[in-house]
Design brief:
InterPro entries: AAA+_ATPase, ABC1_TM_dom, ABC1_TM_sf, ABC_transporter-like_ATP-bd, ABC_transptr_CydD, P-loop_NTPase, Type_1_exporter. It is a multi-pass membrane protein. One of its GO terms (biological process) is cysteine transport. This is Cytochrome D ABC superfamily ATP binding cassette transporter, ATP-binding and permease protein. Pfam families: ABC_membrane, ABC_tran. This protein is an alpha/beta fold. It folds into three domains: 4-200 and 226-311, ABC transporter type 1, transmembrane domain (ABC transporter transmembrane region fold, Up-down Bundle), CATH 1.20.1560; 317-410 and 492-578, 3-Layer(aba) Sandwich (Rossmann fold), CATH 3.40.50; 420-489, P-loop containing nucleotide triphosphate hydrolases (Rossmann fold, 3-Layer(aba) Sandwich). The chain contains 18 helices and twelve strands. It has helices at residues 12-45, 50-100, 102-108, 110-152, 154-201, 203-209, 212-265, 270-296, 298-311, 375-382, 405-408, 425-429, 438-447, 451-455, 474-487, 505-518, 554-560, 563-572, and strands spanning 334-343, 350-360, 364-368, 389-394, 397-399, 411-414, 423-424, 464-465, 493-497, 523-527, 539-544, 547-552. The chain has a six-stranded mixed beta sheet, with helices on both faces. β9, α16 (505-518) and β10 (523-527) form a beta-alpha-beta unit. The two termini are 68 Å apart. 35% of the residues are buried.
């Protein structure tokens, strides 16, 4: 139940050490409480004056108060540790996302990744707060009570010792069942999260295609799967709680039966019998509490395991091998890829195979191919977001991959859907250059054609835009992304992944007029389906099934009359064999 990775966190051993000491003291106090409650009841049963019983009652009440105080103290010790640990986990998880890049997000899904960083952290806090105290209680309290009972009547202690492993075995059997159901519930919850996020992100497209109702049904079916999985987990939890309560109650009843017979035979005193009878429920209480909270914390345990699995992923240690020899990318700088391959995790099929490229200076390179041909994967590899195998050289320096800090410091990225942060216009535009002045930002806004839009904003550069604030159209988002690039004069390699794919042709042509001047003094690697961009490219790379099948200038490719011509005609809707 306890993940050993908990002990990696600062303060874990100290917190558990203090918990152990407090719990040991509390176990002794429970014994004293039970003993003097028995003495008080026995004396009162024998009609002893209240004054004569006052001392025993005072000790009982003092023990009771101390016990409650120790419970508060244990929470006081654990709650700050749990908060500190979960805060640290959240911070490290977000940092790990940034270091591992978009690959880890795509593997887990956006919904699950976000859920882990927010809801998952809350579940982990609940897991740490509930489980650690119960685990320590179960490890100490029953055995202190058992030892004391053995000093009174060893036969009853032996019976309690015998029944305890039976209950543990029963818990394990039901625990495995509950764990399996909770795992399915957790997987369905992550699936629901991913479906929900994907639906929100693609809502406009689904509406345009008339598929929103069909996809809503899909989300409904996934949510129903999650509901049924949750009810299945709850049913096992309720069943196991009932069965555990039944077993412990039955065990206490058996103890009471034997105590009654011993009292009738005169082989045990009333005080001793009452002490054992009062302490027997206390003996089973820690395991009952642990079992009850076990089901309540399974999601937290799963979330903790997933978070730790991500944090345990190996980070690159060889990302400083490339040392830039010049200040930024220059006209004589060169990138060479030879026989580079890449396969996605858990896939035997190569997504990129035998990639051979030589890119120099401020060339404009167009990547063309059908959907799934490997254009985006190649861009991710060039951006250092994924690491393939093969020979890679930057400015003559051989490196194992392109996740090199100095290389990535040259890059700017313009995707299909630029992300607009929920932040000010100023912060969104100065993404690459936080030191940019307001005058520079305003100048760039004018150059990218956003002056009219900007003049309508109530708070100027301080206006909050993005989700939940002032919205931007697709064309405006692309112009903001272009403005980010224009503000940074030091990064001279631009990766563009079909940046105009979702724009109408009129908006695209207007944006093209703004974009082309930006290409000057930059190396541009431009993935596109739009043929009109190819006339502005110095070199065209044609991809099919993850491989480069042709490359050259537009004139050379047309003269070759190969796959590029076939692809070009297919894009135009022309059947060359007609």
């Amino acid at each position: 139940m306890l993940d050993p990775r908990i002990f990696k966190f600062e303060g874990a051993r100290k917190a558990l050490g203090i918990l152990t000491i407090l719990t040991a003291i509390q176990a002794v106090v429970i014994v004293i409480q039970g003993r003097y409650l028995s003495v008080s009841l026995s004396e009162l049963w024998q009609m002893t004056p209240l004054k004569a019983v006052a001392l025993a009652l005072s000790i009982f009440l003092s023990a009771f108060i101390i016990r409650q105080f120790l419970t508060v103290a244990k929470n006081y010790v654990l709650v700050p540790f749990a908060k500190q640990t979960t805060d640290q986990l959240q911070k490290e998880l977000i940092q790990k996302y940034a270091k591992l890049g978009p690959t880890v997000i795509s593997q887990n899904g956006t919904g699950k990744s976000v859920n882990l960083a927010i809801e998952g952290i809350s579940q982990v806090n609940n897991y740490l707060t509930l489980v650690l105290i119960k685990f320590i209680d179960m490890s100490i309290v029953p055995w202190v009570i058992l030892v004391y009972i053995a000093t009174i009547k060893w036969e009853h202690a032996l019976f309690l010792l015998f029944i305890y492993p039976v209950i543990i075995l029963f818990m394990i059997i039901l625990g495995y069942t509950a764990q399996a159901k909770a795992d399915r519930e957790y997987d369905r919850f992550n699936r629901l999260s991913n479906h929900f996020v994907d639906t929100l992100r693609g809502l406009t497209t689904l509406k345009q295609l008339g598929l929103s109702k069909r996809y809503a049904k899909n989300v409904y079916e996934v949510s129903e799967d999650y509901r049924k999985a949750t009810l299945g987990t709850l049913s096992v939890g309720i069943l196991s709680t009932f069965a555990l309560d039944f077993l412990t109650t039955l065990s206490i009843a058996v103890v009471a039966l034997f105590l009654g017979m011993a009292l009738m035979d005169g082989t045990i005193s009333l005080v001793a019998g009452l002490t054992i009878l009062i302490l027997a429920p206390e003996y089973f209480l820690p395991i009952r509490n642990f079992a009850n909270d076990y089901h309540a914390t399974l999601d937290g345990k799963n979330a903790f395991s997933d978070i730790m699995d991500i944090l345990d992923q190996t980070e690159l240690t060889d990302n400083h091998l490339y040392q830039a020899q010049q200040s930024g990318w220059q006209v004589d700088s060169q990138l060479v890829l030879e026989n580079v391959n890449y396969a996605y995790p858990n896939s035997d099929q190569l997504a990129l195979q035998d990639i051979n490229l030589s890119l120099t200076g401020f060339e404009r390179i167009g990547l063309v191919g059908t959907s799934g041909s490997g254009k985006s994967t190649l861009l991710n590899l060039l951006g250092g977001f994924i690491d393939g195998t093969g020979d890679v050289q930057i400015e003559g320096q051989r490196v194992p991959h392109l996740s090199q800090v100095d290389w990535q410091n040259n890059l700017q990225v313009m995707p299909q859907d630029p992300y607009i942060f929920h932040d000010t216009v100023r912060a969104n535009l100065a993404f690459y250059t936080p030191q940019a002045t307001d005058a520079e930002i305003l100048q760039v806004l004018q150059r990218v054609g956003l002056e009219t839009w900007f003049n309508q904003l109530a708070d100027g550069l301080s206006t909050i835009i993005g989700d939940g604030a002032v919205q931007t159209s697709g064309g405006q988002a692309q112009r903001i992304a272009l403005a980010r690039i224009m503000l940074d004069q030091d990064r001279r390699i631009i990766l563009m992944d079909e940046p105009t794919a979702h724009l109408d042709i009129e908006t695209e042509m207007q944006l093209k007029e703004t974009m082309l001047p930006v290409f000057n003094q930059h190396m541009v690697i431009f993935a596109t389906h739009r043929l009109h961009w190819l006339a502005q490219m110095d070199w065209i790379v044609v991809m099919k099934d993850g491989a480069i099948v042709e490359q050259g200038t537009l004139e050379e490719l047309l003269a070759n009359d190969g796959y590029f011509v076939e692809l070009q005609q297919a894009m135009k809707g022309v059947n060359r064999h007609a």
